Amino acid sequence: MNSTVTVRGAHTAYRFDGPENGRVVLMSNSLMSNYDMWDWTVPALSDRYRVLRYDTRGHGRSATTPGPYSIESLADDAVALLDALGIASAHVVGLSMGGMIAQQLGARFPGRVLSLSLCDTASEMPPRSMWEDRLATARAQGVPALAESTIKRWFTEPFIGRAPGDIEKVRRMILGTGAEGYMACACAVRDMAQTTMLLKIAAPTLILTGRQDPACTVEQATVLHRVIRGSELVILEDAAHLANIEQPAAFNAALRRFMDRVEANLPAAA
After folding, report:
1. What is d(CA 236, CA 226) in angstroms, rounded to the nearest whole number?
2. Are 12 and 57 in contact (CB under 8 A)?
3. Which helix (H) or strand (E) holds 135?
4. pLDDT score, position 195
5. 269 in a domain, yes or no?
6. Is 161 within a domain?
């Protein structure tokens, strides 16, 4: 189930779930995670769809190449992965950094994108000083020094208290992220400015976010919604940044409903 392929000079880890003849759904992970973050989501899609998840460069099982990276180059990786696997087009789902990559795909590679689901993400991530502080911490003390503050940002306090197993799984993903890969991707998020680019997105788009997300706020989701023509905005209650993990039933229902509606208007998968 777990496979690797060389993409733009980097060893890239990916995994398929679901029927081989299903329409492909490409899923892109957040900063400081890997494709295991979609374990809470894949079962809601894989009865019908061919789910393809991968570890972003610098994360998880994929290679770390010298940074800094850009969101544009990480999107080029995603398209190169589709090319390497012989996939012409896909539904694209991204959360946080993955959603930033997905925005690039929708704007720059419209022929490859059947739909976009932009989850707990933003088109710009100020202030720069915040990222400089995190980069300095990672450089001096490593990613473990960022782990607890990240968990508190990613989940509401009640969820942290009631779901220790989920939190521990996420903590392992964070601690499994090397400092070099984190910093290379964090620079990409820090330097991102792609609000105007959203005007180029024509694919059906769902914007899905947690009401209590302090990292990519409802206000930032509203910018996406207002700029992307015809987009749908769904706000999930009692969820922070990793809404797919904190409120999986509501997240999965909204995602599946949207995707099935788009699918109903597409020709049958080859």
Report:
1. 18
2. yes
3. helix 128-141
4. 98
5. no
6. yes
Q: Which residue has the tokens 């302090």?
A: 214
Domain count, the chain: 1
Q: At what angle do helices 179-191 and 71-84 cross, to 10 degrees?
A: 110
In the block, residue with structure tokens 């999965």: 252
Q: How far apart are CA 23 and CA 49, in angstroms?
A: 5
Edge-to-edge, what's the strand order for the sheet holding 205-210?
2-7, 10-17, 50-54, 24-28, 90-95, 113-119, 205-210, 232-236
Q: Which portions of the chain are predicted below pLDDT 70?
A: 1, 270
Which residues contact residue 108 at a Cβ distance below 8 angstroms, ignoring those fewer than 6 apart?
Answer: 72, 75, 197, 200
Six token digits for residue 57? 């460069």
Distance, CA of 89 to chain centre: 17
Mean pLDDT, the chain, whole residue set? 97
CATH number at 50 reads 3.40.50.1820
Residue 268 falls inside a structural domain: no
Q: Which domain holds residue 88?
A: 2-263
Kindly state whether residue 270 falls inside one of the protein's structural domains: no
Radius of gyration (C-alpha) of the chain in whole angstroms: 17
What are the helix and strand counts (H, E) for the chain? Answer: 10, 8
Give the rounded distance of the alpha carbon of 176 from its chain centre. 17
Q: Output DSSP code: residue 9.
A: T
Q: What distance in Å separates the CA atoms of residue 214 and residue 137, rounded to the nearest whole number? A: 20
pLDDT at 270: 60
- In this structure, what token pair is assigned to residue 222? 């509203």
SS3 category, 95: strand
Q: If we measure between CA atoms, which residue out of 164, 26, 183, 181 comes closest to residue 101?
A: 26
Question: Measured between alpha carbons, how far is 244 from 226 in angstroms, rounded to an integer?
Answer: 23
